[in-house]
Design a protein that fits this description.
Layout (H helix, E strand, L loop, with lengths): L1 H30 L6 H41 L13 E2 L10 E9 L4 H11 L5 E4 L1 H6 L1 H9 L3 E4 L11 H19 L5 E2 L10 H7 L3 E3 L3 E2 L8 H10 L5 E6 L6 H16 L3 E2 L2 H18 L1
Parallel strand pairs: 1-6, 2-3, 2-8, 2-9, 3-4, 5-6, 7-8
Helix pairs in contact: 1-2, 3-9, 6-7, 8-9
The structure holds zinc ion.
Zinc ion binds next to strand 2.
Length: 302
């Protein structure tokens, strides 16, 4: 959030400076008083205006470049970590604890990015103006950098789902490799430094979740499993989602890791049904923020 703020700051500053440069050139033009014939002075004003315009343009361009560089440097130094409330760092979350009238749900997609299905999921989300959360696999980020960039460019939250998607037991060195390398490649590809983690298969006991917890990642599980990886058929898949749907819930689906045509086919119906029930869609950081605010309100009332 801080980085976004400073980005908008830079934009504001840029506009102010452009204004300043503009009024300076105007002042310059007004200083040139016509002292010979009108035609001559008109000509010299035109010349000055043209050269002032060119000068201003050059200055704006160099200013823009300078600000962009400093903004990129800042981003590279800090990364765009999601502004999670501190109480969630190192915690495991299945769903947000919200009052039942807060009908929000977080759609999450695992194991991508993946050719075809990730772009299809992104298109459906875009059409419906929904932001979701994508738990990506490091080696897929490496193989499909453009799809990874698209996920972030379209406003979705990106999160860590290890490098290899292994299920077996991992010692701390291997777990560190799996998690840190994935965080690194997400950062190098998108500029986002994620602090959200989901263990492959939801396995909390093979060393990888323990590493994530110690490293203060928020471990994001789910409250509603589509079981889409078993390709149960579109109708069944939709039913699976709604069997456990609840306000503040987190829905598990997959955009990668295999044939996801059923997930892609079911997604518009899932969205439509949630909307019919009065739900709106949020990302995982937004969901956590809502719980944090609600708990603070409750605490204030006590
Ligand atoms: Zn997975």
């Amino acid at each position: 959030m801080e980085n976004h703020k400073s980005f908008f700051w830079s934009q504001g500053l840029l506009i102010a400076l452009v204004g300043l440069v503009g009024s300076f050139s105007l002042g310059l033009m007004m200083l040139v008083k016509p002292n010979t014939s009108e035609a001559q002075s008109q000509q010299s004003i035109n010349e000055i205006t043209t050269s002032a315009k060119a000068g201003t343009q050059a200055r704006i361009e160099s200013l823009k470049a300078m600000m962009l560089t400093s903004w990129q440097q800042q981003a590279q130094a800090k990364g765009f970590a999601y502004a999670l409330p501190a109480s969630f760092l190192g915690a495991t979350i299945d769903a947000a604890k919200l009052s039942p009238e807060k009908k929000v749900i977080a759609l999450t997609f695992d194991d991508g990015p993946w050719p075809e299905s990730t772009a299809q999921v992104l298109n459906i989300l875009k059409k419906n103006d929904i932001k979701a959360t994508f738990f990506v696999v490091g080696q897929n980020v490496k193989n499909y950098p453009d799809l990874t960039k698209q996920v972030v460019a379209e406003g979705h939250t990106i999160a860590n789902h290890t490098w290899h998607h292994w299920y077996h037991h991992m010692n701390p060195q291997v777990a560190a490799y799996e998690i840190e390398n994935t965080t690194d490649i997400i950062f190098k590809t998108t500029g986002v430094k994620t602090n959200l983690f989901r263990p492959p298969g939801g396995n909390m006991h093979n060393g990888v979740a323990a590493y994530a917890r110690n490293s203060k990642y928020a471990i994001i599980m789910w409250s509603s499993d589509s079981i889409d990886y078993s390709r149960p058929g579109v109708q069944r898949l939709v039913k699976n989602v709604f069997r456990q749907a609840q306000p503040g819930g987190i829905v598990l689906m997959h955009d990668g890791g295999g044939n996801r045509s059923q997930t892609v086919e079911a997604l518009p119906t899932i969205i439509e049904n949630f909307r019919k029930e009065g739900y709106s869609f949020v990302t995982v950081p937004e969901l956590l923020e809502m719980q944090d605010k609600e708990q603070k309100v409750l605490a204030n009332k006590k």
